[in-house]
Amino acid sequence: DVRLHIDAGSLDLSDVVPGDSIAVSGVCLTALEPSGRGFFADVSNETLGLTTLGDAAEGDAVNLEKALRLADRLGGHLVTGHIDGLAEVTAVETDARSQRWCFRVPSGLSRYIARKGSVCIDGVSLTVNAVDGEEFEVNLIPHTQEVTTFSQRRVGDAVNIEVDLMARYAERLFAQEPQA
User: 123-151 burial by CB neighbour count: b if 16+ within 10 A, else e?
Assistant: First the structure.
């Protein structure tokens, strides 16, 4: 396992205390020793093996988001930072001022991705526009392109995927035998 130092850039950490969760490219990490410029986080072998953090190099840009407080507005869908696996960028096409991105997920995750449903890619909550087997598409508006690390991603890159939380729970509930 490793201890990382994350430079928070312009993210205000003044209200972050040791033990708070911060999503780093969608991966929920525990903030240790937060300061004005960044924080440390311990990353287990499990997380390194399941996410893109295992291949990260010093200086790589990451998406950062502090944990949601229950009293805050929900500006996307429910995201936990518990990564389900990796997807591959398979295509990026211009669509007027937006971009249409295509991803391929492992077959075990494809059943959780539905047209007009939600998916979280590297910590960015997005709406699914189309699904075809193990591939799905999302649309990135100019703002999302500018304020996330998508501008640094290329076809063939791996990204962290968190599928819709409600889909995972629904599957689990329907798979259970009713108990007396």
Answer: bbbbebeebeebbbbbbbeeebeeebebe
Q: Are 12 and 22 in contact (CB under 8 A)?
A: no
* 163 CB-near residues (< 8 Å, 6+ apart): 84, 109, 112, 113, 119, 120
120 close to 162: Cβ distance less than 8 angstroms: yes
pTM: 0.83
pLDDT digits (tens, 9 = 90+) for 102-158: 999 999 999 999 999 899 999 999 999 999 999 999 999 999 999 999 999 999 999
Residue 43, both tokens: 């990353």
Which residues are CB-neighbours of 114 under 8 A, at least 6 positions away?
A: 128, 131, 164, 167
The secondary structure element, H or E, covering residue 2 is strand 2-7
Residue 71 burial class via C-beta count within 10 angstroms: exposed 0-12, middle 13-18, buried 19 and up = exposed
The one-letter code for the residue type at 43 is: V
Helix residue ranges, H only, 26-69: 45-50
Q: Which residues contact 62 (CB under 8 A, 6 or more apart)?
A: 6, 24, 25, 56, 149
As a whole number of angstroms, the distance between CA 23 and CA 87 comes to 18
